[in-house]
Amino acid sequence: MQTILQILKMAGGWHPGLYLKIDNAPYMELVIEAMDESGPMGLSAISVAHYGEQNGDLMRDPEMCFELGMGGGAHLDPWYWRNDYVAIEQWSRNVVRDQYVHLVELHDQHKRFAATWDNNLRLQGFVEAFTDKCIRG
């Protein structure tokens, strides 16, 4: 997710309360926000989502949650994927009853999806669309 990392860097980096909303018509808005809770490995986490609307409700299409790792350079490691339009919610890494659970094949799928999504965000110009006019928190 180099595109997201580039946007985070332009925004001054991860911090509690981080909220970025990038409007890049004709694409769905992109929202990047710091999560209040850490990820499954205890690292800082962000949610990245495209939002659409259906019957007045905000719909994630998709949302992914990532931990921000610094070992070997800044990187984002996915652990959650959701798409409201198809009613699917998946955790590939999680803590369940105080035990770390890692679903390797699903995590690999999440990493492949994130790489494809990242390339799409780059090609769609979300870095260039990130300006001072974007909503920040």
Question: Which helices and strands appear, and what pairs or packs with what?
Answer:
Blueprint: H1 2-10, E1 19-22, E2 29-34, E3 45-54, E4 57-69, E5 75-83, E6 88-91, E7 93-96, E8 99-102, H2 104-123, H3 126-129, E9 135-136
Antiparallel strand pairs: 1-2, 1-9, 2-3, 3-4, 4-5, 5-6, 7-8
How would you sum up this structure, described in words?
The chain is α+β, with helices and mostly antiparallel strands and 137 residues long. 24% of the residues lie in helices and 41% in strands. Strands 6-5-4-3-2-1-9 form a 7-stranded antiparallel β-sheet. β4 and β5 (75-83) form a beta hairpin. It starts with a helix and ends with a strand. The model has no long low-confidence stretch (mean pLDDT 94).
